[in-house]
């Protein structure tokens, strides 16, 4: 199906040699990213001693159950307006992503009439409705034209993988958001609709067997999972606020920030422009990160990230990178966007001269200043009690210093932090060769085309 040789070079079925090169983690398929988590987890335990137990983040499994309970309770409360449920703030990140996906689907023409939507007490009813709707409508060329039998479960903005897709793989090989068996009998148009609904509905309870779990993962890169509110705030400040002195430190209008928050929470298509205060938008971004039920870098990895400061400098980057690989995809993608943004802000911290020799005032927000502000919001553990923390005040001060140091290092090295080196890609492919040899050749051909 494909085999490796020296210097991380593989051969595809067609005989083409594929030499593995460093790639961004976002370019890996969903299946590869899941297997990379396992490879990174093993390497952390075998090659490094962080002096703590490393626990794989739960990837929102508990949150999914909570979401299903929320949906059930909402269905029973017919008199309650669904839009009063927050769409962005103070809810799990995975649910924010799902809400944003639903928002995009409505904009792209997937909207059903409101009365029909309110009738569905169970998410599966919505799927049935969509399928019935699909069978009554003429075939949609956009949904049925692709010949790919190993289709992506999500949008990929800049990549078309259909030319590299195996041509006649059985329907049972399709990787989608639902289990393989459940879409076996559907025609192509229906299965594409199900894939489009993948993140707008609560995911199924994961199978206990890893092999079964893997079969629900896409062989193509999943779309970038960054909350709309985060991306909008970052883009606004990158456009209007990079020369604003003391950004994130200067106060904002609580009334205007609350209004923006409410608009995002109602699912309104908020357009941040020059009329919005940079300081208000900065405060909104901090508020979103602060109010997340689970920190962006997860409670499970808190101690491990902190303990990287105890390692030799040459090991700190490698271990930090492996820990980033353990993050769920939505956390990883959101963190990448945030670090990209913070790095850009830090690049404009000092006074500069433009091409005409005019001095441009810096914003004074160095990577250290940014890490001091954002660190406690991104990396923290659940507080047990006020009494416990009053006793451990000195320990907390040391940990706070470590949090700042860890985030500052990641801001300055974000360009390489999310790259996956050839040796780890090789381990991922070797692992897949043992469990899913049929997909390795497809992945190799996609790598060769990039």
TrEMBL record:
Region ranges (Disordered): 95-184
InterPro entries: ARHGAP6_RhoGAP (IPR041852), Rho_GTPase_activation_prot (IPR008936), RHOGAP6/36 (IPR037863), RhoGAP_dom (IPR000198)
Alphabetically ordered keywords of this record: GTPase activation
Compositional bias segments (type: Basic and acidic residues): 100-124
Transmembrane segments: none
SMART domains found in the cross-reference section: RhoGAP (SM00324)
Residue stretches of biased makeup (Low complexity): 141-162
Residue stretches making up the Rho-GAP domain: 217-418
Coiled coil: none
Molecular function (Gene Ontology), one example: GTPase activator activity
GO biological process entries: positive regulation of intracellular signal transduction; signal transduction
SUPFAM superfamilies named among the record's database cross-references: GTPase activation domain, GAP
Gene Ontology cellular-component annotations: cytoskeleton
Protein name: Rho GTPase activating protein 6
């Amino acid at each position: 199906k494909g085999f490796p040789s020296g210097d991380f070079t593989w051969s595809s079925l067609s005989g083409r040699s594929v030499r593995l090169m460093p790639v961004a983690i976002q370019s890996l398929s969903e299946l590869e990213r899941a297997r990379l988590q396992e490879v990174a987890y093993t390497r952390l335990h075998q090659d490094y001693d962080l002096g703590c137990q490393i626990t794989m983040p739960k990837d929102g499994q508990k949150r999914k159950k909570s979401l299903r309970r929320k949906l059930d309770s909402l269905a029973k409360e017919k008199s309650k307006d669904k839009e009063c449920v927050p769409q962005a703030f103070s809810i799990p990140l995975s649910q924010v992503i799902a809400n944003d996906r639903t928002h995009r689907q409505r904009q792209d023409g997937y909207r059903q009439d409101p009365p029909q939507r309110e009738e569905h007490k169970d998410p599966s009813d919505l799927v049935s409705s969509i399928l019935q709707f699909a069978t009554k409508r003429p075939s949609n060329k956009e949904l049925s034209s692709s010949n790919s039998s190993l289709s992506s479960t999500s949008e990929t903005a800049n990549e078309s993988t259909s030319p590299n897709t195996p041509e006649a793989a059985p329907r049972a090989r399709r990787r989608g958001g639902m289990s393989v068996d459940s879409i076996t009998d559907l025609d192509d148009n229906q299965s594409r609709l199900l894939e489009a609904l993948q993140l707008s509905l609560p995911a199924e309870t994961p199978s206990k067997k890893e092999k079964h779990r893997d079969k629900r993962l896409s062989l193509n890169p999943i779309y970038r999972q960054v909350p709309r509110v985060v991306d909008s705030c970052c883009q606004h400040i990158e456009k209007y606020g990079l020369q604003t002195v003391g950004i994130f430190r200067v106060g904002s209008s609580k009334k205007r920030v609350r209004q923006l928050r409410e608009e995002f929470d109602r699912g309104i298509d908020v357009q941040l422009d020059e009329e919005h205060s940079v300081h208000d938008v900065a405060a909104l971004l901090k508020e979103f990160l602060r109010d997340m039920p689970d920190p962006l870098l997860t409670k499970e990895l808190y101690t491990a990230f902190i303990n990287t400061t105890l390692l030799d400098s040459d090991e700190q980057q490698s271990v930090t990178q492996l820990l980033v690989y353990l993050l769920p995809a939505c956390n990883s993608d959101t963190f990448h966007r945030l670090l990209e943004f913070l790095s850009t802000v830090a690049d404009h911290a000092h006074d500069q001269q433009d091409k005409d020799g005019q001095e441009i005032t810096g914003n004074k927000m160095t990577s250290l200043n940014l890490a001091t502000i954002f660190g406690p919001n991104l990396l923290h553990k659940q507080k047990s009690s006020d009494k416990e923390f009053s006793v451990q005040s000195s320990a907390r001060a040391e940990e706070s210093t470590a949090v700042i140091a860890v985030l500052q290092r990641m801001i300055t090295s974000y360009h390489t932090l999310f790259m996956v080196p050839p040796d780890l890609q090789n381990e991922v492919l070797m692992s897949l060769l043992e469990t899913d040899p049929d997909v390795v050749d497809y992945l190799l051909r996609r790598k060769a085309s990039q």
